[in-house]
Amino acid sequence: MTRSEIDVTKLNEEVREESLRVQAAMAEVRKVIVGQRALLERMMICLLCRGHLLVEGVPGLAKTLAVKTLGLTLDLRFSRIQFTPDLLPADLIGTMVYQQKTGEFVARKGPVFANLLLADEINRAPAKVQSALLEAMQERQVTLGDTTHPLPDPFLVFATQNPIEQEGTYPLPEAQVDRFLLKARVEYPQKDEERQILDRMMSGEVPMVSGTLDAEDVRRLTETARRVYIDERIRDYVVALVRATRQPRQVGLTELAPLISFGASPRATLAFSDASRAMAFLRGRGYVVPEDVKEIARDVLRHRILLTYEAEAENVTTETIVDRVLERVEVP
What we know:
The chain is α/β, with parallel strands linked by helices.
């Protein structure tokens, strides 16, 4: 056995052992959340990648409850803020308060100073609040007065939004949407899952969850996930997928060209790299396979592709574009 084979075997064993810690945390969340396997995995992927997550779904699908429960299972500082049209940046990041005794201004930090921030109904906040959140998401810091305050490590934003109610909402700036590592869509539960939800609620029992991971655990798991191996051919495959959203004619998808206004940015390529390694980590593997990339493709690309008016008129969605690209680009 060569040295490289020994290293891969050792990494596989380490990843398999560490992934059990993550699976234990997911098991705690499942005590409260019925189904929603894909959503729970996307939350864990963002946790491993130190990336932000945007969750979209109609009301009543336990989006907020899922994120809140994850916060309870992590021994991290959790904060929730309900976004409303009258919200001010100071309500999010804090402000400078005058102390009469000392005659000085001191910083009063807002709810953004947390490890896990739940931004509920994020598209209800006006532009000034979104710009304040954008600095926190990208720079992981907040400026109060003339002083810059670093945010806790790790810092993650899990945001929810309602796709069917547009009154009193503000479309998120494209620059901010691009900062989200993944955008997950939550669907209605299956018939047996909905019956299980009903039975749980009628029983009146409130499941108790316990903390399984702390900040040091998250940092260690993140470092392990970053060491997951990505072969050169997988890297070429990722680049080909992203470029196909910008230049579909080059891969034979001429019919998609009039439907795409702007393709995915290079940030999508980096998101593919991080998210596919985290997906392999959750599967207990120390290396990425093409299925990891394909499984996460919709979540990486759906919010990074801008459609034309023609596509909207024909009811073409970004998921349709991504599926066609996955079908066309050759798998290594």
